[in-house]
Task: structure prediction
Amino acid sequence: MTEPNTIAVAMSGGVDSSTVAAMLCAEGHSVIGLTMQLWNQRRLAGREGMPESVQGRCCSLDDVYDARRVAQQIGIPYYVVNHEERFERDVVRPFVEEYLSGRTPIPCSLCNNHLKFDQLLIVAQQIGAERVATGHYARVTFDEARGRWLLKRPADHSKDQTYFLSGLTQKQLSRTLFPLGDMTKPEVRELARKHGLALAEKPDSQEICFVPGGDYKRFIDAYLAEQGESLPDTSGELVTTTGDVIGEHPGIHNFTVGQRKGLGVATGSPLYVIQISGGQKQVIVGGDEHLYSRTLRARRVNLISIDDLHEPMRVAVKIRHRHEPAPARIERTGTDEILVTFDQPQRAITPGQAAVFYDGDVVVGGGWIA
Amino acid sequence: MHRVYLDNNATTPVLPEVFEAMRPWFGERFGNASSIHHHGQDTRAAVESARESVAELLGCNAPEVVFTSGGTESDNLAIAGLVAAGDHVITSGIEHHAVLHAAKHLEELGCEVTVLPVDGRGLIDPSDVRRALRPKTKLISVMMANNETGVLQLAEEIGKLAAEAGAHFHTDAVQAAGKVALDAKRIACQALSISGHKMHAPQGVGALYVKKGTRLTPLFYGGRHERSRRAGTENVPGIVALGKAAEMAKQAFDRGGQERMSAMRDRLEQGILAQVGEAGVNGDGAPRVPNTSNIHFDHIEGEALVIALDLKGLAVSTGAACSSGAMEPSHVLLAMGLKPERARASIRFSLGKQTTEEDIDFALSIVPETVARLRSISPRYNKQVVST
Result:
């Protein structure tokens, strides 16, 4: 029988989540290990130039093997749960469609919102675990004064993953534990060694888990071919900021704002992608100075530390994972729109990425850059 | 924790008598059955008595029994061994992967394969077999009992059709052996597969009945073991155990074991259905082996139910698992026409000789409440309740 206060640990087979399982177990909690089977790498292997052998990290048999061995070593029940269908619908499809519409998606946020902190929480509750712990670097606390669950940056800012967690709701946060929030990565590895985990030295995963080698273009080709769909023709004109057509491009999904390489035109000064116009299939290019902008509009906003944004607020805003939050003012400009005005213009604000608002270490909320 | 095992179609525990029979062959008794000295003779005698016991269970003659490493090898040996490039093969969509994937491989080697459908109860219509026959049809491979639903096929009728057409008939009887009486002669098959660990012998041993006079190409090349049908030194402890398990299965039939088993299974099934709404038996209305019950509990994920029950001490399963161990919708239930949601909401209970009435009581005490708990949390179930 599952004990009250049983904790389900989302185990990826990496050092972080394995250490979480080991430490919660050592603290005397009743722990269940769960691994989400999200994507079958073999599906696209060998298609449209994808590698013949399975190379991506996501849900690889090696990672499941590692997670299972850790669970066996620390003596907890362990299960793999299949969420491939949901992952494809809520993460892979939107990922492909965003690129084809000229935006640059972040699948990790979608996965957190729709899989890890949705489906996994449901499974956990069904099997008798009220709370789920993950190996994310973030902190969650309850603020008595505000009566709200707060998401905070971790002690180790270099590992901060709050950017990908800004879609979490109060209900989701109330059932979530981030036991690594007060630790640095070297401390986590040290703890893993202390618990005798064989994977203590396993390298971190970097790329998007389901895209082998980070080659998203090849992935999109292979995925559409597998689905029996043809890649829509999104080729069009390469246009300067002043409206001059200077060439053609093979398809808008090959570009992202701020990109310099692969434009296929030679000019005296370096050219960058300034904007992608999905409707007109245009890629607008210009000098570095055109990449800077002071404002952005965030849509599909989720607020965490406050229930609503009634009046403008001073915050720091992060516009991509590797971006130091920049001082800005946020104000509501529509039922589902927040206008962000930076003190200083920011480089390469990219539609499809998240804009996450911080008040010190506290995540105020976040939305998707329109 | 009190644990009850109702997953005997996955594997069965070795019965104490079976273990006792095989135990000396790990120590005081040993030998290579091909050796001419005393040790060889002693071992040969043990292997041949086991062969006789298995033949007795299958209703055939001892020389027609080939010992293998298990059900998968038996299926592969039958399929690859009876067919050559250019032949036509008929099988069904609910076969075990040991048959389906072997048939797929034959296709790559230049055979033509027809995969027959099943009806909503999981039954193959013999007239579909007749319609699929071609002049080049060399083999029909249709299972005796399905591993997921326990549904029994009309093997004798299919055997008759094969004989009329001059084709070979192979039946995968892995889930039938020890559960229903088998008679290879009456089924009129040329080959029949069984597996030790599905009938209380250990994992790693099985057998293939091959009718006398049937030409069979071996899978392995080596010595002339098993009358040149299966090279490799015999797994003597396993074979002895399979012989003992076959003997015990035969005895159990004579003592009404099947009736007791199906009474327990029916009590479990009816007890669950009496307490749980929007649930039903997959394969209902078809003849089934006495130990298996596959039940769909609508609006839940079978995966979550299996885990929740395991954490309470009850071992059951969904039909299929992929290589990572995650569960997949069963190809058998999908072939029966179940919607994917219902296939995913299905759980298999399978009893064994060690199963007691107390085990059934235990299952009845936790399954309904666990299903209710899962439904109370299921977004799909709640949506449905709100909309009605």
